[in-house]
């Protein structure tokens, strides 16, 4: 059964955040809010968590997972950002964008795109997510909580708890979440390619 944590959206209770972080460090899988949709998350090194995410979402091994980071400095530990795209990436975070970039050696090979050796990174502009990442001190391996056969992510934490109670270890709820996922920008070739138009304005990256 998933533990359920209902926190204030602007001032999340530190005790609840600490308990969710403890769950993650014990190998747990959580659902948590972001500035776009609810997401699934576990620690980067959690192999079992990765497979549980794949099972919940019905994903194959070609799916691009995302490292959800606290800030730009942390992003720089896990991806190579060329001079050509440095400013545009820095200006767009935090925000509802996922950037596909060449991975550094800090990223486990199993998370990389098999051919391009890239990984997704993002920094959410969400108070609760930021509190979680600050307490955790490392990125979350993450993907949008989109269930097979459905077009939109659930917007209520209690609904996620009801539907995925036996597949998750914790649900972090801060009120209703959105249904529009992030805008995905591939910057692996320096020339931006918009792969998905979502919550972030894509025009700043359109050539």
UniProtKB/TrEMBL annotation:
Span of domain YrdC-like = 14-200
Q: Which Pfam families match?
A: Sua5_yciO_yrdC
Query: SUPFAM superfamilies under this entry?
Result: YrdC/RibB (SSF55821)
Annotated GO molecular function terms are:
double-stranded RNA binding
Which InterPro entries does this one have? DHBP_synth_RibB-like_a/b_dom (IPR017945), Sua5-like_dom (IPR006070), SUA5_domain (IPR052532)
Q: Which domain of life is it from?
A: Bacteria
Q: What is this protein called?
A: tRNA threonylcarbamoyl adenosine modification protein (Sua5/YciO/YrdC/YwlC family)
From what organism does this protein derive? Catenuloplanes niger
User: What lineage does UniProt assign to this protein's organism?
Assistant: Bacteria, Bacillati, Actinomycetota, Actinomycetes, Micromonosporales
């Amino acid at each position: 059964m998933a533990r359920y944590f209902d926190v204030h959206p602007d001032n999340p209770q530190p005790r609840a955040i600490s308990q969710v972080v403890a769950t993650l460090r014990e190998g747990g899988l959580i659902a948590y809010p972001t500035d776009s949709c609810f997401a699934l998350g576990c620690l980067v090194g959690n192999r079992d968590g990765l497979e549980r995410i794949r099972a919940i979402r019905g994903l194959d091994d070609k799916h691009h997972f995302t490292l959800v980071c606290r800030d730009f400095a942390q992003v720089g530990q896990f991806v190579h950002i060329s001079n050509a795209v440095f400013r545009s990436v820095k200006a767009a975070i935090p925000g509802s964008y996922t950037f596909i970039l060449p991975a550094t050696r800090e990223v486990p090979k199993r998370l990389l795109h098999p051919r391009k050796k890239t990984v997704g990174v993002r920094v959410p502009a969400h108070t609760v997510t930021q509190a979680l990442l600050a307490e955790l001190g490392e990125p979350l391996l993450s993907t949008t909580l989109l269930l097979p056969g459905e077009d939109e992510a659930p917007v209520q934490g209690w609904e996620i708890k009801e539907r995925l109670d036996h597949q998750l270890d914790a649900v972090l709820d801060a009120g209703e979440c959105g249904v529009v996922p992030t805008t995905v920008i591939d910057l692996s070739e320096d020339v931006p390619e918009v792969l998905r138009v979502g919550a972030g304005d894509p025009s700043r990256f359109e050539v």
